[in-house]
Amino acid sequence: MAYIRKDVSTLTRAERRRFVGALLEVKRRGEYDEFVRTHIAYFVSDGEDGLRTAHMAPSFLPWHRRFLLDLERALRRVDASVSVPYWDWTRNRTAASVPWTADLLGGNGRRSDHRVTTGPFAYAEGDWTLKVGITDEKYLTRDLGRARDPIALPTAGELESALREPLYDAAPWDSTSAKGFRNGLEGWGTGRGSVSWRNHNRVHRWVGGVMVGGASVNDPVFWLHHAFVDLQWSRWQQRHRGARYLPAQPPGPRSDQYERIVARHEKLPPWDVTPDQLEDVSGIYRYA
Predict the structure, then answer these.
(1) Which domains does the chain carry?
(2) 125: Cβ–Cβ under 8 A, 6 or more apart, which residues?
(3) pLDDT tens digit string along 48-74?
């Protein structure tokens, strides 16, 4: 039977406690840091040679869908009642709203060094020491809204602009794709600074701290954010019935993207799964 992923703002006190407890246990077991390592390994940009899977590519959505499922399976091995909630950043838009509460993810980082000092993931609690993808700091950092150079979270209208796109993705299948739902949601735009960060990308920048860069998994909000991104893929599929993951066939040898992106029926590293096998997960979970 499919389980439910809920809006984090609707979780009961007991559900919040069990979700946090499962995350902390996965971290204690050493499994969580492997997720950080995996994301760093597949955090590849347009300019790098070779295959791109996690970002700046059509497989952005199925890659993170499978990544979320792996984390969720680890959580459910600890507590079978737990699933990953989603953070609707079009509704809960301030540093005082969920999920930034003391019983969930804790709050903003302090002004001096952005160190998170509240909640169960604060360094002082002793349960959330960063070990992967860090330099000197072993503590979780955040700069919600970027105090020195403020930006706002994406609006419902900005999200809607992506959902309206009838094609899943379009050539050149990277961060410069002007058409297609995938890049509209992933959020690579033109220009510099905040105007070039849309939807998914803007949220990473708004949270700040360790959420900026390949080691963003070090902040548990990564999962709540990507659960909401995953929900948008499901909503897009419902709106555009019959629309499929693109490209259906891999680009040919004359293409700049030859052997650089994953087509619909090709294996999606590091797993033995293809994007088309991840298009329908209704038998595994659904969203409330």
Answers:
(1) 3-276 (1.10.1280.10)
(2) 119
(3) 889 999 999 999 999 999 999 999 999
